[in-house]
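Worked Example 4.2. Consider the chain below.
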Amino acid sequence: MIRENIDQLTHEEYDMLSEPVDVHVLFSIRSDRLSNMHALTDVLPHLLKNRFEIHSLSVEQARQAITKPAAIESEVFATHSFTYDEEALQVILSQFSSPGDDGVISVEPFHLQIICQACEVRIEQKLQQHEIDLEVNRSDLPSFDNLYGDYYKRQIGKLPCSYRIRHNSCWRTT
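Applying the procedure from the previous section yields the following C-alpha cells:
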C-alpha cells in the first residue's frame, strides 16, 4: 500500500519509513524447508546469519525431554506438574523412535513437542472439569492417527476468529 502511494508521502514520512528498523525474528523451520528461506537472502541478506539446528535425541534424552518439563511446578503454567507412567513413556518412545543412518535409535524433538503438548492439553482439560490428574497414563495419550492434524487444529483455534474465516463464517477447531 505504501509503494502505491509513495508519491503522496511527505518528506518526513518518507524519511521515517527509510530508517532501518531493529527487528529480531525467530523462525522455526524444518530442514527440508530451509531452501525456501535461502530464496529470500537476496532481499534479506542477514536472514540466515544465525542458525541453530536441533538434532535428534537419544532415547534417554527423549525420556528426559518428556518427563523433566512436566515435573516443573510454576504458577505461570496452565497446569500443575505431572508425571508419565512407564507404560505411557514406552508407548511414546516406541512410536517416535527410529534408527538413523548410523543404526543408532533416536527421536526427533518435533514429535515430542507435539505429543507432550497434547498430553498437557489433556491434563488442562481435566483441570477445567475440576479433576486433578497427576500422572499421564496410556489412556491419556492422544490417538497417534491424527496427532499432527489435531495439533494444527489446536494452534489455529488459538487464533482470533477474524484470522480463521472460512466460507464467510468463523469455524471452531475443537
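Strands lie at 57-58, 83-84, 97-99, 105-107, 135-136, 165-166, 169-170. Helices lie at 11-18, 34-38, 59-71, 86-96, 109-128, 147-157. Compare this with Example 4.1 before moving on.
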